[in-house]
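Dear support,

I submitted the protein below through the web form. The confirmation email said the job was done, but the results page showed an empty box. After a refresh the structure appeared. I'm attaching both so you can tell me whether what I see now is the final result or a partial one.
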Amino acid sequence: MPSLGHKKILVVEDEQDILQLITLYLEKEGFRTVSAKTGAEGLRQVKQEKPDLVVLDLMLPEMDGLEVCKRLRSAPDTALLPIIMLTAKAEESDTIIGLELGADDYVTKPFSPKTLVARVKALFRRLERKPDENSTQYHYGDLIMDLARHEVREKNTEVPLTAKEFGLLEQLLRNPGRVLTREILLSTIWGYDYYGTTRTVDVHVRRLKQKLPSLNDAIMSVKSLGYKLKEPC
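What the results page shows now:
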């Protein structure tokens, strides 16, 4: 992947003041930006500009952010495109739906532009992190995670995962039998001091189980704490 300074970010936001502020701070950090003010325009820009990441407002004219996210995730070319959603506090239920549809992260309005930039950088770092040379693969039943290839296969069939889903699975496979609290998972996978709801972790665990049904019983919920992966037999 290109260096941070060469990465292109699409900002889909219909409020001009917010759009300009986000663009200003991203470009100040060396990112290239393109923008769109409607959901339909955002989809067109994705095809035309091929961005490395999308900052997507939830409330958009013509087509809302949830529909845009759903369409991006359903298309093979954009199924793994990193998406950060912008939401208002009153839209928490929609935020959870957005995460379930495949958004990697979200920022609640009003927000500090520095916070958004930090989360953009954290997501890119997660995608670019070099695997430990001593453990580039994990095996669990019929599942194989190849860190070097950034690939997960089950019964020899590749299973596409978003960056956060991949990171969550990696942490579980690295620590079989160990309880991982939601706070630890947020800190490790999201890569910043997270002050939002820990429900984000629950949503990503549910999505991971949907994509890898063989882990339904293997990933265990530990009441009031977090999750653990059963040790392989």
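Response: this is the final, complete result; the empty box was a page-load delay. The longest strand covers residues 83-88.
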